[in-house]
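Recap for those who missed Tuesday's class. We walked through two folding examples back to back. For each one, the amino acid string is listed first and its predicted C-alpha cells come directly after. Nothing is annotated here on purpose, so try labeling regions yourself before you check the end of the notes.
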Amino acid sequence: MKKIAVFMLTAALSLTAAAGCSGKKDSDNESYADEDLVNIEDLTATTEERDISSAEANSVLLILDEPEKQSPYTFMLMLSDPQENEIRFSGIPANSVCLYEDSLENSISDVYEKEGVNGAVSYAEIIFGTEIDRYMVFNTDSLSRTFELFGDVEYPLDAELKGFSANGSVQTLSPDDVCAYILYPLFRGGEAERAKKAADIVQCLLDTADRKGAAEKLEDFVPRLLSVVNTDISQLDFYNYRDAIVNMLESSDLSAEVLELTGMSLHDDFIPDEDVLPENMKRKDNE
C-alpha cells in the first residue's frame, strides 16, 4: 500500500475517535501487542515523506468489539482526504448483508466471527467499492481512555442512558457515556440508526473538541495504545509521520463529516445501497 503517511494520519485521528482492544485476532495477521516500544531517537523521516499535501484519500476500518457486554459489533469506515482537509465517518450496520463469496447468507458480523478482522475488511471493501488500507479493533475500556484526550462532549441526546433525559436536548456526555451511547441497542431504526448515531457522535467529538490539546498528548499516548490494540498500524508508522498527523489535527480548517451508508432494512438484515462512496474517495488495488 502506498503513502503510509496518510494511513498514519487517518489512524491517529481514529485514535481520537474510537479505541480499545479485542480478543479476536487473525492467526495470519498479528497485532502489534508484542512489539517493544520503539525509541523515538532511532526513527527518522524526511520532509518529503511527511508531506501529505498531494496524497489521495485513504481509509481505516474501525471495529468496536465488546464481548463482555454481549453487544452487537460496531463497524465504522473512516476516510481521510488530505487534499480537501476532510475526515469522513461512515457507520456500517452490524446486520449489513451483501454478496460475499457468491453468497447472501452472512452479514458482516457473521463474517467477522468466522474469519476475523481480515474477513470484515474484505466485506466492507465490497460494501463501499474501495480498498481499505488499515484496520483497528477496539473495546470500551480503551475507547473511554481515548475519549479522555478530548474530555466531555456536548451532544443532543436521544437515547435513554442512565442519568440522562432522552428528549434530544444538548447534554454533557463523559467518555464512558459516549461508549454507552455507541452501544445503545434500542434505537427505533435498529442497527441502521445505531451505526449512523455512532458515526455522528464521533464526528461531533472530533469537530468540536480541543484537537490541539489532544495532538500534544499523542506522542505519549499512541505507542501505548498501539501496543495493546489489534491493528496493522505500527509504532514506527506513527513516529515517522507524527508531524503530518499533528498538522492536520491542529488545522482550523479540518472538516469532520458523516457519510451515511444508505440502504433498506429487509426482515433482520440491512441491504446497503451501491455506490455510496464518492468516486474521489475510492482506491483500487491497481492504483
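Example two. Treat it independently of the first, because the proteins are unrelated.
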Amino acid sequence: MQRYARLREDRYGRWVTLPFKPLPALLIACLWLGGCKSEPTSPVAECVHEGAGFCWTDMGFHGEITAIADTPWGLFVGTHGEGLFRLEAGGWTSAGFPGAMVASIAVGADPAQLVVGFRPGSAGSVPSAIVRSRDGGGSWEVADGGWSDLANRRWADLVAILPGEPEVVLWASRSLILRSEDGTESWTAVEGSVEPVLGGWSLRDWAHEDGSSTVYAGAANEFEVTSGAFFLRTEDRGLTWELSSVVGDLEPGQGAGPDAFRSVAHRPGFPGEIVATKSFRDLYSSDGGNTWSIGPREPSANRLVVWPDWSADPIGFGTSSSDFGAGPLEVRGSPDRGRTWQAEAGIPELLLPEVPVVGIDLQGRLLLTVEGGLWRLEPR
C-alpha cells in the first residue's frame, strides 16, 4: 500500500511513489465514511487555539492544497488532483476543473480577474496549462495563447499578475518564462542570460518589490547541470531576466547535485531586502539577491517564509523533521529581519507538508496549509 495510493512530484519535479506512512486519524475516518475527496464544510469556530502570537482558526478544508488566493468573490484554493475550490458564505464549493493539479492562482488589480495555472498529471477537465476568469471565477476560458504543450510538460509552475498592472501577466514553465501585456490574450518568451547559463530549471517562488518594476524569483536546479540553486531578477517588469546568484549547498569536490529555492519573500518598503529558504537553509540578502548570508544546514531550517506588510520581521514555517516528508509544525520568528531565527512557543500539534503553501487574505491574516488542511493565523 502506498501513501494516499498515488504518485506525486517530488521537490525536483520528478514523479515518485511515496513510501507508506501510517494514515492520520482524519484520513482513516474519511475512508470509513466512504470517500476522501476534498469536499469540506464551513469553517469551524473562530480561534480554536492561541499561540506564537496568533489566533489559529481551522478553515474547514481537508485536502492537499497547492495554491491560495483570496478575493471579494471568495477564498480560492487549488489542490493536488482535486481541482479548484472556493469558500463563500455558505461554505466550500467546487470552482471547477475536477481532477486538476493546480500549480498557482494569480489575482489582478481588478479582483474579478483570476489566472490559474495547472501542473502535469492533471485530469481531462483541464483544457490548457493556463485559464482565466474575468468575473471572479464565475466562468473560465483558455488563456495560453497557443503556448501550452501538455504532452511535453509545458504546463505552469507559477503565474503572477503584477501589482497595479492587471494586463501584465508572467507565466513560468519548465526552463521558460512567458510574459503577456494584454491580460493573457498573447504571450512572448522573455529574453535574458538565463537559458544558456542554467540549462534545466524551473521557478519555485517569486516576490514583487513594492513600488518598483523589480521581481525576484527562486528556481530549482532540475537536471544537475551544476550545483546550487538559482536566483533570478528582473528590473523591467519581466521583460528581461538575469541570473543574480547561484547559491550552493554541497561541499567543495562533491560535484553537481539537484538543489532548489523553496520560498522567497521581500520586505515591504525596503528595496533589495530579501529572505529565502532552500534545502534546510535560511538565507538573507540586502542587495537584491547578489550576495547572501546563509544559515547553517539543519533539519529545522524554515521550509517557507513570508514577510507580511504589517511586520518588521519575517515569519518562518518549518519542521524539526530531517525528512522531506511531513513533520511537526514549527513557527519561527526573527529578531533581526531574517538573519537569525528562533522557534516560537505554543504551536498547535499540526504537521507541515513537504511543500507547504502560505497566503495572505484580504484582511491581512496569514493562511497556512498543513498536512490535510488549511489554517488561518490572525496576529494577536
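Answers for example two:
Residues 1-36, 250-257 have pLDDT under 50 and may be disordered.
DSSP finds two helices and 33 strands in the chain.
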